[in-house]
Amino acid sequence: MLILRWLTALVLLLAVHAWAGTAVKTSQAAPPAQQGTLVLVAGASGDTGQHIVRTLLAEGYQVRALTTNAFRARERTGLDIDWVEFDVRDAEQVLSVMEGVDYVISAIGSRDWRGPNSPRYVDFGGVRNLVDAARSEGVQHFVLISSAAAGPHRDHSESPRLGYVLYWKTRGENHLRASGLDYTIIGPGGLVNGPAARSGIRITSRADYRRGLIARADVARLATASLTAPSARNKSFAAVNDDELGPDHWIADLRALAPDAQTEATARNVAEGEQ
User: Fold this and answer.
1) pLDDT digits (tens, 9 = 90+) for 182-227
2) Cβ atoms of residues 86 and 78 within 8 Å
3) Are 80 and 249 in contact (CB under 8 A)?
4) So what's the pLDDT on residue 158?
5) In three state form, how does the secondary structure of the chain look?
6) Given CA atoms 224, 225, 230, 234 in this order, what sign does their dihedral have?
7) Percent of the chain scored above 70 by pLDDT?
8) Residue 20 reports pLDDT greater than 70
9) Residue 118 has pLDDT above 80, yes or no
10) Residue range 73-97: average pLDDT?
């Protein structure tokens, strides 16, 4: 009987030690590398922006989600986070929300083709305000979601479609290139809904882009990865889904892509000449 009691006590003691060891390991687990890193997402309540927010949160980043209407953003996205209301057209407001930010992802885009919410004031003016504030606050990297069809390789001044949106997006890109900030400019093809990584992603120069679609969730993957990937630094590219490619093929594409040839001085001259 005494032996049985001793064996029972031994089993309980071993169990307690095993549980304690597990608890210690859990409490000492290393936090994600991104913990405490703050990413400002402009256009966070949009169709693409909300995918970006979810991806960043899953990666362990802190997110400052910007929107024009916090109540509507919560209702639309289902994301119960601290939404920050701001007007991207107001330079002082933009500067006020940039304090303490490590990285910026801009997914803003105009919904009106004329008036104060047209591409001129959002896709160019809004991006310019974000870039200037990011430079002022010493942001480490700026990711701009633009368009596969935009870019300085082509003259868009004679393309009046949708309020000259490609022209104004390109001017916003030029301002970012001229800023001196480290940047990545992602030009998605036609945006569609769907899960991430269902198809491979093909990355090309935008001069080589013809047509294609890409899931918004995959754009969010690219944007998040571009924050810290050296292979994404100071590059502009088009991105589309391709069923013939593996899920990680885009990594090799991005490494092979050359940085933008346009120098900072050249970009500044372009931006100033378009004022």
Assistant:
1) 999 999 999 999 889 889 999 999 999 999 999 999 999 999 999 9
2) no
3) no
4) 79
5) CHHHHHHHHHHHHHHHHHHHHHHHHHHCCCCCCCCCCEEEEECCCCCCHHHHHHHHHHCCCEEEEEECCHHHHHHHHCCCCCEEECCCCCHHHHHHHCCCCCEEEECCCCCCCCCCCCCHHHHHHHHHHHHHHHHHCCCCEEEEECCCCCCCCCCCCCCCHHHHHHHHHHHHHHHHHHCCCCEEEEEECEEECCCCCCCEEEEECHHHCCCCEEEHHHHHHHHHHHCCCHHHCCEEEEEEEECCCCCCHHHHHHHHCCCCCCCHHHHHHHHHHCC
6) negative
7) 82
8) no
9) yes
10) 95
Return the pLDDT at 153.
87
Structure tokens at 264: 């900072």
* Mean pLDDT within 1-27: 35
Rounded Cα gap, residues 104 and 107, in angstroms? 10
Instruction: Indicate whether 73 pLDDT > 90.
Output: yes
- Residue 184 tokens read as 């990545």
User: What pLDDT is recorded for position 243?
Assistant: 94
Hey, CA dihedral for 217, 141, 201, 159, is it positive or negative?
positive
Residue whose token pair is 């994404």? 232
Closest CA to 254 of 227, 222, 224: 222
Residue type, 112: D
Q: CA-to-CA distance for 179 and 177, rounded, in angstroms?
A: 6
